[in-house]
Amino acid sequence: MRLGFALACALLLTSMTVSAKPTPQLRLLSEHAVDGMRGGNLSGLAQCGNELWTVSDRDDDQIYRLETGEGAWHAEAVGIGVPPVPDSGLPWGLRSRAWVSSFVRGGDLDFEGITCDSAGNRYVVSESHAAVLQIPPTGPTSWLKISPIMVREARASGLLLRFNALFEGLAINPQGDQLWLAAERESRGLLLIKRKQTVWDCDGGCVLLSEGGKEMQPAQFPSARAMPRDFADLSWFDGKLFTLERNAYEICRRDAVTAKVERCWSFADEALQENRRYPQGFALTEALIVDAEGAWIGVDNNNGARADGEVRPIVWRFAAPEGGWSAKP
Hints:
Largest sheet: 8 strands, mixed
Shape: globular
Number of domains: 1
Radius of gyration: 20 Å
Structural class: mainly beta
CATH architecture: 6 Propeller
Helix content: 10-25%
Distance between the termini: 37 Å
CATH class: Mainly Beta
CATH topology: Neuraminidase
Order of helices and strands: HEEEEEHEEEEHEEEEEEEEEEEHEEE
């Protein structure tokens, strides 16, 4: 009996070992340092037509159009008029801490993500205010009218509870009527709101995912340790939601309705090569665009130098995985 039980356990472990395939690695095509960002701290990327745009979490009055090409890129500042921020329903404690920190670090609005719809509208998320700014191709900017139910439901689900761990990214569908938001960490989560006649609101519930816990940094990370699960940005492509899972050094494809993970790809091999490492004990990638040919990933280095001395923000271009982003495991 004992021998049979031992053999059964051995077979089970063997089958688990065989089925546990390593996460496929993405291939780096190019690397671009970015000049011209007044506040540095590249914290989001978006593709609007043929143009790439970015934001800094230190700048409240401008976004940036990226002049791309070989080698280093230049960020051209584009001024934006920002009206007073509406009350999103965040508690006074979180709002007051954000206000105080703005005098130390700069950037009261703390822009942490940017996305575009097919009409060329750009949307920027303010982490400190849990609000979304719409910047049309022409005309004045305005804050989306978002139902306060969203923040209440998020906090009831364990999201948006910690200072500097609120909304870290966003994505919108091409039609511009569905918007996904990523709550950063402890707990991390994904929310979906839809445009109604006069307000953006939940449709049977805003929270698609709320989860806590920790996961190990990749083996390529020096002195790897368990870190809180987090989201750093979102990208919508081909009907799917792609999440930048910063501490795991992965891009994951998720169902846009259920937020269920379908497949993940790692960029740790390239990002953690010795010359590209930063002294911080955590990951610094904060921006994501996924398209048919590959992915853009942006690094917010907080003006710190990496091992090779580079102090500017970085954007990497990775090739699409073999079989494309829709490939099954």
